[in-house]
Amino acid sequence: MARSKASMTAQRTSWALPGPVQTLAPGVLLCAAISLAAVGVQRAEERFFGHGYVEALVLAILAGAALRSSWTPGVAFRKGIAFSGKTLLEIAVMLLGASISTAALAAAGAPLLLGILLVVAASLVISYGLSRALGLSATMGLLIASGNAICGNSAIAAVASVIEADAEDIASSIAFTAILGVIVVLTLPVAAGLLRLDEMRYGALAGLTVYAVPQVLAATVPVGPIATQLGTVVKLVRVMILGPLVFGVALARRATRGAPGPAVRFSIWRFVPWFVVGFVGLALLRAAGVIPERALAPIQTTTAILTIMSMAALGLGVDIRQLRHVGARVTAAVTLSIMALATMSYVLISLLAP
């Protein structure tokens, strides 16, 4: 009888999941459930309103934070939540490199390309300066500046991974940036009529000011196909700056920390996170044609899923009550930043107009 019980116990043990998987599974599955609900809400938006005005990524972090405000995840969930918020996010950032097409650079043209680079650089400086002047931390200022100048939530998430930002800072910057991003999408077509912009100039303005690629489509489709095409190209050029920005932030962070002890032999892994190297490598492979076109859709889908799950994890680590302490200042910083970006963008397209 004893042998029988021992045999049954051994059999159950042999079918058990590996230790690390058992440890991570509860938290990862919780994040996956929140992400699935967020995607469902976005799909409902698209069905009833024609566009997903609030992205699943934003919905996931808001849902996670709402859940966290009424329930504190137990010890069994913590490692999986931490894994989703860090490792899955780093994988998503790396995979984002495969979606970058250098053909966008050639299509944009040299004058517009130079103008985009100048506007992005100026926006980074101005947004960061405004944030600091309003009393926000350097970390929050960098997150807001990155999101405003480049690609909203994706840029915030990527830079946050490098600077190891707190969940509260990430959630605050994403939440308020997302709200203004939706407002921009809704008001930009109205501005096109008031400013009497043609499709090309409006498309360039939308690509320069709207945060996310899907939002560019939502803002430009009502105006016309030319606006949509040019807006998408300009937006992709902005997205391509994410890699160099994250690379530069990583180097600057290592330099400011200093190198204790005697000098050591140079190694790229000491200065740049592995996922940044992976991002650049995948972008180069895409440019060389090594990554086939048919592989892009699955890669983009995987990237989106991992990013949404990581945002759900970040939301689960946020105490909403702490957001009240920075809400007004963050709102002011993001609002002033988008106004400055829109002004510079309008000046640029006015100068480049034939």
UniProtKB/TrEMBL annotation:
Repeat among keywords: no
Bilayer disposition of the protein: Multi-pass membrane protein
Subcellular location: Cell membrane
Keywords, sorted A to Z: Cell membrane, Membrane, Transmembrane, Transmembrane helix
Transmembrane domains' residue ranges: 21-42, 48-67, 88-106, 112-130, 142-163, 175-195, 202-221, 233-251, 271-291, 297-318, 330-353
Pfam families in UniProt: Cons_hypoth698 (PF03601)
Main subcellular localisation: membrane
GO cellular component: plasma membrane
Top-level taxon in the UniProt lineage: Bacteria
PANTHER family found in the cross-reference section: INNER MEMBRANE PROTEIN YEIH-RELATED, UPF0324 INNER MEMBRANE PROTEIN YEIH
Entry protein name: Putative sulfate exporter family transporter
Species per Swiss-Prot/TrEMBL record: Alsobacter soli
